[in-house]
Amino acid sequence: MTRKLSVTVETYPIAGRFVISRGAKTEAVVVTATLTEIRGVGRGECVPYARYGESVENVVAAIESVRASIEAGVSRADLQRLLPAGAARNALDCALWDLEAKLSGVPAYATAGFDAFSPLVTAYTISVGAPDEMRAAAARAADRPLLKIKLAGEGDEARLAAVRAGAPESTLIVDANESWDADSLSRRLAVCADYGVALVEQPLPAGRDEALARLAHPMPICADESVHDRASLAPLKGRYDAVNVKLDKTGGLTEALALARAAQEMGFSIMAGCMVGTSLAMAPAVLVGQMANFVDLDGPLLLARDRIPGLSYEGSTLMPPAPELWG
């Protein structure tokens, strides 16, 4: 077997700014792993995330640390033992999935146990900001059926009121990105219920979310920063109702599918989520989306430009990836 690995760092501008409780960004910096064999090429993309101690430099270094093994032909199962969950393993794992599909002619969805890719309705993200800014953003997206609202703690009630006024018919889910505290949790959940919020994502900091087990949930509460792979599932029981499965957290599609299936067996609902990346990062996550109650794969919709070819979105409906892109 002659397999070559190449690693590239690419930058894609965001349309405007993407703002959450931890800060703002104007570009998506992604790391792409490309595996080349005589009969095919496989690609995978990851987004290093500082919240998890990742940088572009240390993700690239992690990929390079297993270059010899990758080029020697290791399998996806081998890769799970070579690298921990995280962005570096994600890029390589997704590249191996893509390469396998290209070499075998068997689509990735079939290898994953699905009959086909089905179109998905994705959430569209409204960045946190002043209420008037968020109302205007919501009004521009009011024709989308599902909006994901970023919140930040103080002032969230005004933000929710503004968004609901701007998009009165859309279903709302909110993401606090760990910005709430236990003392205000019950009050803020009640406000969310008043505005018809269908799901609240990661209201409390990971590791300090015990209060979620002590109060009623007026809507499902979804773990994001609190869940990475199957090893992190057990402590969530009784605190969360759903888990956000992101490939950059799980370390690729292999563990993401295993996590989603294990979570369902434990009674959790599934959200298929993403970092802000290109269509190449979203494409494998479409497989997780086949199992999900909520889908949040809007990364390319937030970019000023995407890869070509990219995913096709018809409004908020995400169409299955073409083989030229991935899988």
Task: Give keywords.
2 domains, 11 helices, 3-stranded antiparallel β-sheet, about 325 residues, TIM Barrel, 8-stranded parallel β-sheet, Enolase-like, domain 1
Structural class: alpha/beta
Order of helices and strands: EEEHHHHHEEHEHEHEEEHHEHEEE
CATH class of the largest domain, named Alpha Beta
- How many separate domains? 2
Helix content: 25-40%
Query: Rounded to an integer, what's the Rg over CA atoms?
Result: 19 Å
Helix-strand layout with pairing:
Layout: E1 4-20, E2 23-37, E3 40-46, H1 56-65, H2 67-71, H3 76-82, H4 87-104, H5 108-111, E4 120-121, E5 124-126, H6 131-140, E6 146-150, H7 156-166, E7 171-175, H8 182-194, E8 197-201, E9 221-223, E10 242-245, H9 247-250, H10 253-265, E11 269-272, H11 279-289, E12 294-295, E13 313-314, E14 317-318
Parallel strand pairs: 5-6, 6-7, 7-8, 8-9, 9-10, 10-11, 11-12
Antiparallel strand pairs: 1-2, 2-3, 4-14, 13-14
Helix pairs in contact: 1-4, 6-7, 10-11
Please provide a written account of the structure.
The protein is built from 11 helices and 14 strands. It has helices at residues 56-65, 67-71, 76-82, 87-104, 108-111, 131-140, 156-166, 182-194, 247-250, 253-265, 279-289; strands spanning 4-20, 23-37, 40-46, 120-121, 124-126, 146-150, 171-175, 197-201, 221-223, 242-245, 269-272, 294-295, 313-314, 317-318. It starts with a strand and ends in a 9-residue tail after the last strand. The longest helix is centred in the first third of the chain and has 18 residues, at 87-104. It is α/β, with parallel strands linked by helices and 327 residues long. 49% of the residues are buried. It has an 8-stranded parallel beta sheet with strand order 5-6-7-8-9-10-11-12. It has 2 domains: 4-105, Enolase-like, domain 1; 120-318, TIM Barrel (Alpha-Beta Barrel), CATH 3.20.20.120. The protein is globular and about 60 Å long.
